[in-house]
Design goal:
Blueprint: H1 2-22, H2 40-68, H3 70-75, H4 80-91, H5 105-137, H6 140-143
């Protein structure tokens, strides 16, 4: 999944540079040899396709993480004392790196936070999809 994200990000960056070239904010443009899409419309299509690839890959990651119990095993428990202790140790250069297979409390907190934010984004996106589907079925889009 990591490499799927890496490919998707490269696609988004390259198409993003082409989108930027359509109306550059600063006085330079990116070389066409490092952009993707050929024109604004093509770049937008590539950009959105890569976005969907990232989203689907993220959903699969979340589903597997919850289904296998990996998140629970790797990220819990998280205690305030542990976070404070590991943050102090990291800031003073004394954080132990003896076992790289175990996350420290700061890592656990940040990874768990990213997962929670990701789930909230997906849930809010699903709500937007439902609202869009309702508008289409009600004929609101046709009336526009």
């Amino acid at each position: 999944m990591h490499w799927i994200n890496a490919v998707a990000m490269v696609l988004m960056i390259m198409s993003g540079w082409q989108i930027y070239n359509a109306s550059p904010l600063f006085g330079f443009k990116f070389s066409s040899s490092i952009t993707l899409g050929g024109w604004l419309g093509g770049a937008l299509l590539w950009h959105f396709a890569a976005m969907w690839l990232l989203m689907v890959n993220g959903l699969v990651y979340l589903a597997l993480g919850f289904a296998t119990g990996r998140f629970r095993k790797k990220l819990l428990p998280i205690t305030p004392e542990g976070v404070i202790s590991d943050a102090k140790a990291a800031l003073t250069g004394k954080l132990s790196h003896d076992d790289l297979t175990k996350y420290n409390y700061v890592q656990k907190l940040l990874y768990a936070g990213i997962i929670v934010v990701g789930v909230l984004i997906v849930l809010s996106g699903l709500a937007d999809l439902e609202a869009g589907a309702a508008a289409i079925s009600d004929g609101a889009v046709r009336r526009l």
